[in-house]
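Query form — protein ALP1-like protein

QUESTION: What is the three-dimensional structure of this chain?
INPUT:
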Amino acid sequence: MSRTLFNRIVQEVTNHSSFFRDNIDCTGREGISPLMKCTSALRQLAYGIIPDFLDGYLQISPKSSRLSLDHFCTSVMEIFRPEYLRKPTMTDVVKLYRHHEEKNGFRGIAPKIPFVVNGVTYPWGYYLVDGIYPELVTLVKTIPEPSDDYHKRIRYKQMQEAARKDVERAFGVLKKKWVILANLARSLKKKRIMNMMYTCIILHNMIRKDKGKAISPNWYPEEAHQPDDLERSDEQVRAVMRHIRSAQAHQNLRVDLVEHLSRNA
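ANSWER: The structure tokens for ALP1-like protein are given below.
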């Protein structure tokens, strides 16, 4: 992680959460700075160390280190989740397939979604995986034991096994860069594990974009406003906009109803 990106995260988190701004202790003296709290949280995520280990290095108590990690994960999710943990659009999926084809050469031309192979229409995308994954239409496995005279299946097996496995590599990279994901987590609550997992994914995507390696670096708050989305027709754009306006009107109605009930309570 570059220093520029780290400083940006510290600034955003500090402005978002009062936990990082409230650094005056009960005696009126200045306590732990936001920089130290964020450093503690990132070191726990990156190296998988226990909070007690940071007592001597950062002069932070184990309790403060645990609180720093919890508040850091919550703040990062609330601030950066809409952009760095968004669902891929049709254009994003096409870019991912094109990148995979250029990187591995598994297929000649990455087709659009849905795509047709040998006269069969496939309405979903696909991910190359190993044999340990469940039987799902979106997970493409290798052929276990093709016969010696079935050259097409042998060729497919060789190409499939030589290509990088998207799902396998994703989790492998995350566990390598964020060691806390590789540690045992039975003693932690489900929500805390989920927050740490999402935070590591968001930080990973932020680092990729900061290095200029993001496949789809542009982000728009509304999917219909993507000018490079060639897969979306004008009617689909209008449908998305109607859905967004309807959701906003419904949300405003709920807020007005809550305020009305609060005044009359």
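ADDITIONAL NOTE: The chain has a mean pLDDT of 76.
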